[in-house]
Request: fold
Amino acid sequence: MQVAFERVAIDYGTGYSIFGGIKGTSEAHREVISRRAAEGWHYAGYIPVVQRSTGYLEEIDLVFERE
Reply:
């Protein structure tokens, strides 16, 4: 079994929500997962890599596997 990791950043932009906290977004994960799937990889999950002291994720590693 082969395993591969690809790092994706979460963008929090600037400003806060009126409901509290801040909103993190990522569109990069879609491109990465689609590209890896076309190469024969299966998305297996993610691992938090960089996290703020408040608990917000800054970066994640997407995990892929294939035979």
Notes: The two ends are 5 Å apart (CA to CA). The chain has one domain: 2-66. The CA atoms of residues 14 and 54 lie 16 Å apart. The chain has a mean pLDDT of 86.
